[in-house]
Design a protein that fits this description.
Layout lengths: L10 E6 H15 L3 E5 L1 H6 L2 H10 L4 E4 L2 H9 L6 E3 L8 H6 L3 E4 L2 H14 L3 E6 L14 H13 L3 E7 L11 H19 L6 E5 L1 H6 L7 E2 L23 E6 L2 E5 L4 E2 L5 E2 L4 E6 L16 E4 L2 E6 L7 E4 L12 E5 L8 H8 L3 H6 L6 E5 L4
Helix pairs in contact: 1-3, 6-7
């Protein structure tokens, strides 16, 4: 296949692994003596789970977190040897594959622990488990009323070698409001859960509760390890407070398909929601809501093209958007690159999309999909 040149993709995301490393170093500095677990669920927040994990571990992170067993096993298959925790599985999940791959299993219900034990006995191996406790999020996690029964079973499993207790962990509900009293209440409850486990003869190797927001603002919640997600990818969990020196890792961009003139009085795109007030020049980009540009963003954003911000006009279509070059078209031609959001000076930011849509930056970087091609830059690849 030598000598064959692949055409550039029409629409792509570029992920800067050096930015990932930079962000991990910031988080590690904030964490002090606590270790850093990088969360790479949902394919690394759409940045590439294995690539992000490798870059983060090389930058000093010690562990990796996922939601499902499938995500964790895929990381093992990709060569990730660091500890991996998964924490969102049903009682009939494939726990045997997790145990065989030395995956740490987060348990949040008695039925899950029973299923893990059964799988461990079938394999003749010790399962590594962590207890996810509910300190107030009231979502996934063992509630206090069920906790003693879980501990009694786990103590028996540890005693006969069926299981090893690695950690006790929880998740915060209002960490993006650092001074909210619920954070202190959850901390107190977390300490109570740890104390009760010790009363049952169970001593966790480590405990952790801090997500990105807590890792950056609440050192008292660092415990033995912090568990950041969105901050790893360079997006602030509290954008109204600070960017914390983080560098966005993802750039979403598209190549110009064509440039054309639109006469005064002519409408653009479906419904003619936008009508030219005077003769103008527009550029067509091959990215639409099928590629992760929300239709509800129509007319509410701009792109970086030809050295300037260019407003998007008309409705966002399934495959296309149109941007207005005006009279200052700066020599824009078909094949030029437009940045929908990125990290360089002048580039629109994912946070701008989130603000325009009344959502969070997490959702924005998870959007690019379908025909979007992902590539990685930097790092030791």
């Amino acid at each position: 296949m030598g000598g064959v040149n692949k055409p550039d993709p029409q629409v792509e995301t570029l992920v800067d692994l050096d930015a990932i490393a930079h962000n991990v170093r910031i988080l590690a500095e904030r964490a002090g003596d606590a270790a850093v677990m990088v969360v790479v669920k949902a394919d690394g927040y759409n940045h590439g789970a294995a690539e992000v994990a490798r870059a983060a571990l090389a930058a000093g992170a010690r562990e990796v977190g996922t939601t499902t067993i499938g995500e964790a096993v895929a990381l093992r298959a990709a060569g990730i040897t660091a500890p991996i925790l998964c924490w969102l599985n049903t009682s009939d999940a494939d726990y045997a594959s997790a145990i065989a791959a030395d995956i740490e299993i987060g348990v949040s219900a008695l039925a899950q622990l029973e299923a893990v034990a059964a799988a461990a006995r079938r394999l003749g191996r010790t399962a590594t488990v962590s207890l996810k406790v509910d300190t107030g999020l009231n979502r996934n996690g063992i509630p206090a009323v069920e906790y003693p029964e879980v501990l009694e079973l786990l103590a028996r499993l540890v005693g006969d070698g069926t299981a090893r207790l690695r950690a006790i962990f929880s998740h915060l509900a209002l960490a993006d409001q650092p001074e909210h009293p619920v954070n202190d209440r959850q901390r107190e409850r977390f300490l109570e859960f740890i104390a009760v486990a010790k009363e049952h003869g169970l001593e966790p190797e480590l405990v952790h509760v801090a997500n990105s927001a807590a890792a950056l603002t609440r050192p008292d919640l660092a415990f033995d390890m912090v568990r950041p997600g969105i901050a790893v990818y360079g997006l602030s969990p509290i954008p109204e407070l600070s960017d914390f020196g983080l560098r966005p890792a993802m750039t979403f961009r598209a190549r110009v398909l064509r440039v054309k003139r639109v006469a005064a009085g002519e409408g653009v795109s479906y419904g003619h929601d936008w009508i030219a007030e005077h003769d103008t020049t527009v550029a067509l980009l091959p990215a639409g809501y099928a590629d992760g540009v929300p239709r509800s963003l129509s007319g509410k954003f701009s792109v970086w093209l030809g050295g300037a911000r260019r407003p998007q006009i008309g409705r966002v279509c399934m495959d296309q958007i149109v941007v207005n070059l005006g009279e200052n078209e700066a020599g824009v031609r078909a094949g030029d690159t437009a940045v929908l959001f990125g990290s360089e000076p002048g580039h629109p930011r994912a946070q701008e999309w989130a603000d325009a849509l009344g959502t969070i930056n997490y959702e924005i970087v998870c959007n690019p999909r379908g025909r979007v091609v992902r590539a990685h830059l930097g790092g030791d690849r």
